[in-house]
Amino acid sequence: MLDGVQRREEILRQLGQSERPLSASRFAKEFGVSRQIIVGDVALLRAAGEEIIATARGYLLENQAEQGFLKKIAVQHEAKDTRIELETIVANGGEIVDVIVEHALYGELVGGLHIQNQRDIDDFITAYRNTNANLLSDLTNGIHLHTIRYQKPEDIEKIQAALLEKGILYQE
Which of 2, 9, 50, 94 could form a disulfide with 148 if both were Cys (CB 3.0 to 4.6 A apart)? Predict the structure, then answer.
């Protein structure tokens, strides 16, 4: 069994080689420790300056996610339309980096998503249904922001036009 330092080095090595998020549960099983130990390892790595992003599907290194352009867009829809929203963004060349809502008490709340493809969408929707958790947008009558990563300037225009057509793009 690896000690804490070796385990954290191995977590970093694997994250550096992976193109997909790696879950704390996966690491826990591999290293024979609890999921909470892995969460603590990641917290220590972050405190030491490692740029690790936590998503709903696991961890990834920030530099793996930093390609293309970023733009925040405002959207509004009911929970039942979440899949349509995500599929529209991905189908038009976007990655949904996060979701942001404005909370009366806490201010801005941000949830990392990093949804890039249909499999990510399916995983997110499955997790949403299986956990009985509420979407952040439930706090704001469906109004929320997404940070979108895209490769070409025309991609964001296509994304916004498609969301507008579906009645999801928020407009005054």
Answer: 94
